[in-house]
Design goal:
alpha+beta; six-stranded mixed β-sheet; elongated
């Protein structure tokens, strides 16, 4: 058996193993995002504080999603469990004084989009000058859960990000709202690194991308396109429902993967395909920010930081992938490996498309 044949067999085995791992993914389900994001609004009016958290049930663990759905539908026992969890896992303090939790409300979305809003009213010892916010939702919703919160109170609007590794945030309510916050940058990185559909679309493009210059053109076109639609969607200029965007993202993976299988040479002007589908993916990125309803300047800053985080995460992935892609171009087995990987991507994209059209 020649050295070239052994390399070919080894490469095929590695690709098959990677394909199986991807197909069996988290929990064996065709889920695209491992990072789930809750969107919170915290309103401070003197000593009264209202905490409202919006969750998307399909993004949460199945058991917790069912519990929230039952509570929103009026099941008393489920509503009591959710209320107890809300009072236990959300704690606010003013200095050393603990804000006392009061009435809880659980409400489903009237738009039929599987969103549930949890509301908790609290009474603090005094009007907060410094408000400490602690959340322990990650213990219930998983280590990849994050809350992106808008805090309205004296001095304007603040934004904080909370999660498993950053469970507590301190907000200075007096004076002007701070201008720098890395929470949105981190959220952007987590969104792209945890968004398997976005990454696999990019992988499908790069697999048959051609020369190094062509690969850079593809990445640049994708970046410009999704940055444009991300801004348009978050600013409210263009609105497309997620029930349309999410299946379209899955379909983009299938389209490009099938192109890879049918074409023996790198498609010409693939950057145009990257740009066109990048417009669709930008609307998918927007789902993490648009429901917050931030005012103009905080929204612009959040948009910039979030997009920089997306680009940083994408750059890390591309930097890791480019040496492998360049090395593969020199191997005799590269066309077969590209076709095999593309078939796997097409199957995953088809599974996501069916799930998002019929089961979400």
């Amino acid at each position: 058996m020649g050295e070239g044949h052994r390399r070919s067999v080894t490469a095929r085995r590695l690709l098959v193993a990677a394909a199986m791992a991807a197909a069996l993914g988290p929990g064996g389900r065709a889920r695209a995002h491992t990072t789930s994001t809750g969107l919170a609004r915290i309103s401070v009016d003197g000593a009264a504080v209202v905490y409202r958290l919006t969750l998307v049930r399909p993004e949460l663990p199945e058991q917790q999603g069912r519990l929230l759905g039952a509570a929103a539908d009026g099941d008393a026992a489920s509503a009591e469990q959710v209320a107890a969890a809300l009072r236990d896992r959300v704690r606010l303090r003013v200095g050393e004084g603990i804000c006392q939790p009061g009435r809880v409300r659980v409400q489903g979305s009237r738009l039929g989009d599987d969103r549930v809003e949890l509301e908790l009213r609290l009474r603090c010892p005094s009007a907060p000058g410094r408000l400490s916010i602690r959340e322990d939702w990650a213990d219930l919703f998983g280590e990849h859960y994050r809350t992106l919160a808008r805090v309205d109170g004296p001095g304007g609007v603040r934004e904080v990000a909370l999660g498993a590794e950053s469970r507590e945030a301190v907000v200075e309510m007096g004076g002007e709202a701070p201008r720098g916050d890395t929470g949105f940058f981190k959220l952007g990185m987590e969104h792209i690194l945890g968004g398997y559909d976005h990454l696999l679309f990019l992988a499908a493009l790069l697999l048959r991308g051609g020369s190094l210059l062509a690969l850079l053109e593809i990445v640049t076109a994708f970046t410009l396109a999704h940055s444009l639609t991300l801004a348009l969607a978050v600013l409210g200029v263009v609105t497309i429902p997620s029930r349309v965007v999410e299946p379209a993202i899955a379909a983009s993976i299938v389209w490009v993967a099938i192109q890879n299988v049918r074409s023996r040479e790198p498609p010409r002007r693939r950057w145009l395909v990257s740009f066109a589908f990048g417009l669709v993916h930008g609307f998918g990125f927007a789902s993490a920010l648009s429901p917050l309803g931030l005012p103009a300047w905080p929204l612009a800053r959040a948009l910039l930081l979030f997009n920089l985080g997306v680009e940083a995460g994408q750059a890390l992935v591309v930097a890791a992938a480019l040496p492998l892609l360049v090395w593969m171009r020199q191997a005799a087995w590269e066309p077969r490996a590209v076709r095999l990987a593309s078939v796997v991507l097409a199957l995953l994209g088809t599974a996501w498309f069916v799930q998002r059209v019929f089961f979400v």
